[in-house]
Amino acid sequence: MTRNTRIAAAGGTLALAMTLAACGGSSQGTDPTVASEATTGTSEETAAVDAAHNDADISFAQMMIIHHEGAIEMADLAVSNAATGEVRSLAEDISAAQGPEIEKMTSWLEAWGQEPAGGGMGGMDMGGMDQEAAMEELSGLSGADFDRRFLELMIEHHRGAVDMAEAQLADGENPQALELAQTIIDAQTTEIAEMEQMLQTI
After folding, report:
1. Residue 129, SS3?
2. Residue 5 to residues 8, 15, 16, 138: CA-CA distances in angstroms?
């Protein structure tokens, strides 16, 4: 190998080393995996807000918020007035589950440029009894009578929620609203069975 050839080879090796060092330095600045995950997370949040929706989705969110608010009102009364720990625990679970669902549906309506439904709780039907009448009756009961009537009314209330959720599955479009509808069906069908079992022991 001539002297000129050795110089050229050494120069090429040095250039290669500098190139590798530069690549290594750039990779230390940002972890591509972390960057990809952050981008994905942002995209999913945007998709949840911007996803297509129809009138059935809007109605489902508006009416289910009212329905959940009624359930929480009844459940909070049971937490204070129920005679058995089993009924109080169920009431606490209902309130804890449905509060975050109200927040979720409210955020959808805001993203869709829609207002929550008005009109109060009067439309909730529990075996021919509306929300106001149900609360008035429950407030006048105590002991086992309270527990029994609370379970009877909440069973009817849950059945109404299941009917609303099934209608959403049939007519809705928004994927997040459809997912919540199925969650409501699964959770409240299970709770109906639990409450029917409790009634047999009171």
Report:
1. strand
2. 5, 16, 17, 98
The answer to whether 125 touches 157, Cβ cutoff 8 Å, is no
Look at residue 168 in the predicted model and tell me its pLDDT: 98
Cα 161 to Cα 68: distance, rounded to the nearest angstrom: 8
Contact between residue 100 and residue 65 where contact means Cβ atoms under 8 Å apart:
no
Q: pLDDT tens for residues 87-139?
A: 999 999 999 999 999 999 999 999 999 998 865 544 567 878 899 999 999 99
The domains of the chain, with CATH numbers, are 53-199 (1.20.1260.10)
Rounded distance between C-alpha atoms, residue 110 and residue 29, angstroms: 38
Residue whose entry in the numeric block shows the structure tokens 């949040």: 45
Nearest alpha-carbon partner for 154 in 52, 74, 84? 74
pTM of the model: 0.74
Cα separations (Å) of 165 from 149, 177, 188? 24, 9, 10
Does an H or E element contain 84, and which? none
Distance CA 68, CA 103 (A): 11
Return d(Cα 147, Cα 86) in angstroms, integer: 10
Long-range contacts of 5-12 (CB under 8 A, 24+ apart): none
How far does the chain reach from its first CA to its final CA, in angstroms? 101
